[in-house]
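Hi support team,

I'm opening this ticket because the web form for multi-chain structure prediction keeps timing out on my end. I have pasted the exact lines I submitted so you can reproduce it. The total is 900 residues across two entries, so I didn't expect it to be a heavy job. Is there a limit I'm missing, or should I split the entries? Thanks in advance, R.K.
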Amino acid sequence: MQKKIEITSELLNNLIFSIEKKDNSSVLKIITEMHAADIAEILENLPTKEAQLLFELVDQKRSADVIVELDDDLRESLLSDLTSKEIAEKVIDNLESDDAADIIGEFPGKQQEEILALIEDAEHANDISDLLTYEENSAGGLMAKELIQVNENWDTKKCLKEMHKQAKNVKKVYSIYVVDNNKKLLGTLSLRQLLLSQSEIPIKKIIKKDIASVNTGESSEAVANIMNKYDLIAIPVVDRHNRLIGRITLDDVIDIVKEEAEKDYQMASGISEDIEANDKIWTLTRARLPWLLIGMIGGVLGAKIIGVFDIKNNFELAFFIPLIAAMAGNVGVQSAAIIVQGLANNKLKLDGIINKLMKEFGVAFVNGIICAIIILGISFTLGYNLMLCITVSISLLSVIIFAALFGTCVPLILHKNKIDPALATGPFITTVNDILGLIIYFIIGEALLI
Amino acid sequence: MQKKIEITSELLNNLIFSIEKKDNSSVLKIITEMHAADIAEILENLPTKEAQLLFELVDQKRSADVIVELDDDLRESLLSDLTSKEIAEKVIDNLESDDAADIIGEFPGKQQEEILALIEDAEHANDISDLLTYEENSAGGLMAKELIQVNENWDTKKCLKEMHKQAKNVKKVYSIYVVDNNKKLLGTLSLRQLLLSQSEIPIKKIIKKDIASVNTGESSEAVANIMNKYDLIAIPVVDRHNRLIGRITLDDVIDIVKEEAEKDYQMASGISEDIEANDKIWTLTRARLPWLLIGMIGGVLGAKIIGVFDIKNNFELAFFIPLIAAMAGNVGVQSAAIIVQGLANNKLKLDGIINKLMKEFGVAFVNGIICAIIILGISFTLGYNLMLCITVSISLLSVIIFAALFGTCVPLILHKNKIDPALATGPFITTVNDILGLIIYFIIGEALLI
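Hello R.K., no limit was hit. The queue was backed up. Here is the completed structure from your submission:
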């Protein structure tokens, strides 16, 4: 039984030490039994030079699997040391068509053709070249061509014999697809059914017909949603004539589910590109600057608004500007997050916008009353002028209710207009709510104080 | 081939109309061919009374699958109409042990025993009762007991025969687990290997030994991470003597991966419980109030800080309070989000905190310089006093750098102390950064203006 590897600094230091001393046998002792995913993790945590030396020591059979697991940057750097011939033989030949196509797709067009021409197995090369024609974020771009298919006119005996042949090229067998003479997908035969059936029964009799399939053009997110909703481990991909051309497995989709959820979080945090902490400074800057600029425009508008009111003679109003702005922002972000996640999980689509607003009004009203009473008590106790305390308290209640309704409405409206509602969360909602919160505060302040 | 169902308001209205007219044949026509997950989605979008009437029309075989797909609230309400006997026969008998245990686990202890006693298949009842002893968020709580296991001493022929027997109880067959005479897990036999092997070869010769397994006590998140890292569709669960006792499939884990990512987002948005837009007003209020109170404390501190400085004679400083506070908050949230996601994806664990800070300093410096120059230009153009413009510009640069470093440090420190770093994002970071931003602004303001 393989042990789970904990990749510690100690392990890494040992490896670096052995690599630098060119003590290959010690290095091999450490990595020989390791899973490709663990080797990939180690490579990502080594300096580039050491990573290159270590990668050269990985046996040919596993190096392809290691390459698949790596981050784009390191993969590019390790592959750039190999010739097209080595890439074809060491890497591509040992991968299923979907992973192979993903890797070849990262090379410039000319080298793609060069590598494809060097692949020994013509069918494999054809499969990959076919996959390269699909959009990356579509079912076609996700699928693998390797699958087991049987004809509806066969019986279970012939079926087992044919599967025996096909299984040589398929690493993971989860479903057996049944097609007619024109390759049109009719249904599946589960391995369980095959195990349970008597020999020599016609396939037609045990085929399971009510199965889900997706079209090559379906978006990755739609594929992930369908597989998740129907608890599918694998799903067949068909062309527009319903001919079976590939299959997608759940492990290829799990990262999409994760990235979707993470993307909403990134947008809510004011990050406009899919970045990682390891990216370069300029990439990180570029992803963050746009939202900061929006915040800045908001800040300048805020300055203008405060300038409109007579702050000079009511300078005490300034004390609670941060409170009002912060609460407006916080409430808006909360409301928007609930709506964005609800939309992402398909929990909201049939509810009317009016119902949502009524409910949000209820939540905001309860929270607002509680906060308003507390702030009235605290500010009065702290010795602020009573009219100022009342102004802050009433403003806070109004701002909380307003910000909640605004935070609810905006993502719903964007969604209705087919714009990603996550855009509304984060800096945009915070900024707008800041400004509107200030306006409410100063209007109430002028009415009560002046 | 089953069509994908689009659940539209029109479809729902038709259903409600037919249900109210007690036109059962029309209702059945609509739902007969539907997947359980689609029926569940429809039920969740119907008024409670109509949902109950519709659920009664679902055939016995599918009603168990429908129940599994429902949200907790609706499930509870539909099940409360059934007797323990009906629950045992209609629902539990038709489910695999993991889903059955999840549902029984929602009943009070006494009714749990009542239902268990009414399950016809004693082994099924035993399996469920065993699963109920594990923590909900552990491998034991996730696993199903149904699996196919063979003895290392059998040959492939005997193996196929035994699998034939066992497959009757297992809905999804992905792996065949090989155990020794003491039920200790030795490895797996893939269906592919079995298809490829000659008959009557000893299992020992084709067993795949280097497989990952998890212990019953492993957390759900750890299971999800392992399955995701090693691209596993199913993973065996063992007890502390390495005896095989269950298996977890990827479709049971995908929701955990999703919830993990969503939880970080919720915390960043200032929501302290796992809530959904459909929850009750009081639940929603309770989840949101704590963070609003933190924001309020921050606001009061902000008022105190502003009061310390001579705002009366430098009232113009008040104009840019919202700008400084908003930018401090935005930058802090961005930095923290990058660290939190990096930690969640295991991308950071080996990098030193110093490196992270240096990089974050670089990003903040570039963003800060750009923002400082822009605000200097804008504010001067708008006619504000030059010294005020310079104050705002210098403060903004300082605040951006400070907030970025703070937003980076806090989650890293929390993580090091085994506290969920997501706690640091959202209102907490925003609030602290607001306050520290104000202090920086007023100190610089006093130095330059007074």
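A quick check on our side: The first strand of chain A starts at residue 148 and ends at 151. Let us know if the file doesn't open in your viewer.
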